[in-house]
Amino acid sequence: MFKGTLVALVTPFLDNLNKSVDYESLEKILEYQMYSKYNPLQGNLNEQNIYSNKLVNNKQELNINKIESNKRIYFNKTSIENTTDIKSNYKPNIDGLLICASTGEGTLLTNEERIDIINFVIKSVNNKIPVIVGCSSCSTPEAVRNAKIASDLGSNGVLVTAPYYVKPNQEGIFKHFEKVSNNTNIPIIVYNIPSRVSVNIELDTLRKIFELPNVVAIKDSTKNFETLSILHKEFPSINILSGDDGTLPACLAHGACGAISAAANIYPLEISNIINSWNNNDLITFKKLSQIVPYISKVISVTTNPIPIKYILSKMNLIKNIVREPLCNVNNDQMKLIDGLLNIISNLTQN
To answer: Which residue of the set 28, 87, 219, 298 is catalytic?
Structure first.
């Protein structure tokens, strides 16, 4: 159900007292993720604009005027009657979105903000790609409540971690997922990320969780590739998704069919091309494209996610460089390190 490139989307904020959700920027980044063929970090514009030089609508070929604004290419919307119709002719760059999770500062959002963001994103993508909602909590009843809300609002799936902070044992972890499964019909992606929640979901526990009827995938950030290989062999119907951009090639080699990627906020086409080349058995292209993976991993790990990503997206004029407390923006030394890594990535992708 969930495979390919799924973007762990940031939540843009306004530069005001409350750091309110910035829906204008959210719309911009959704458009960039789904349709842009141009990355402002990658040098000069080539022959492509946001969608294509030419496109066919109502059996007539239309030349689209384009304008350059803040290093980003937009359609001149006065040149066509209905840009929604134009978008309807194009397959999105990505295969899904994860919202209100760790990259989206989900634990720093109010319940009202979560509901508004879910509604906004679902309406914006208009059934083009699945929308998954982060529903993790240290409280099992709250995780169930979040999953029910996500389901009622029309999302296509939920992402659930083991309960964080409280450090449950393996039986407690299983019961947590069992409660979420028993109280909702929505597809569940299990997220195993010990570095964030301080407990690992062990292999035997995963085996029990995978027997739950609406568990359909796992996002893995453990770097335990032996476990992934075992799960892939024993549960071929459960999709494995890489949850760590730095280990994406290794995860694919051990049974993953895609990724939920934080780096894809910045590099949606690049991550998609890596995954697609692997899935299409184009190993020469896969090897070449994978050269950028270590540098992408480094650039988004200079400090806590999503701080570096938001700084980079602000350089791309997509969002404002605002994170919510207790997170802090990158400092000058971190900016220099990030900028240097971006130059390396740009050079690699242009060769």
So the answer is: 219
Other CB atoms within 10 A of residue 139 CB: 13
Q: Is 77 contained in some domain?
A: yes
Which pairs count as long-range contacts for 207-212, CB under 8 Å and 24+ apart, including other chains?
207/234, 207/235, 208/174, 209/174, 209/177, 209/178, 210/235, 210/238, 212/177, 212/178, 212/181, 212/188
Active site residue 74: no
Verify that 46 and 61 share a domain, yes or no: no
Annotated catalytic, 167? no
Domain extent at residue 143: 4-51+91-292
Q: How far is CA 45 from CA 42, 67, 316, in A?
A: 8, 12, 14
CB 73 within 8 A of CB 49: yes
pLDDT band at 20 (very low <50, low <70, confident <90, very high): very high
| Residue linked to tokens 């970090």 | 41
What's the length of the chain? 351
User: Is 135 inside any structural domain?
Assistant: yes
Residue in 32, 35, 191, 311 annotated catalytic: 191
Predicted model pTM? 0.88
* Cβ atoms of 277 and 270 closer than 8 Å: no
Q: Supply angle C-alpha 14, 20, 21, rounded to 5.
A: 80
Q: What is the pLDDT of residues 263-301, one digit of tens each?
A: 999 999 999 999 999 999 999 999 999 999 999 999 999
Identify the three-state secondary structure at position 5.
strand
Q: Is residue 136 a contact partner of residue 164, using CB atoms and an 8 Å limit?
A: yes
Reduced to 3 states (helix: H, G, I; strand: E, B; else coil), residue 192 is strand
d(CA 94, CA 337): 28
3-class DSSP state of 67: strand
| Residue 143 belongs to a domain | yes
Give the model confidence (pLDDT) of 149-168 as tens digits: 999 999 999 999 999 999 99
Q: Domain check: are 125 and 274 in the same one?
A: yes
Residue 14 falls within a domain, yes or no?
A: yes
The structure tokens 């909702």 sit at 184
Q: Measured between alpha carbons, how far is 150 from 307 in angstroms, rounded to an integer?
A: 26
List, in sequence order, every residue forming a beta bridge with 259; answer none if it has no partner. Answer: 5, 242
Distance (Å, whole) CA 134 – CA 114: 10
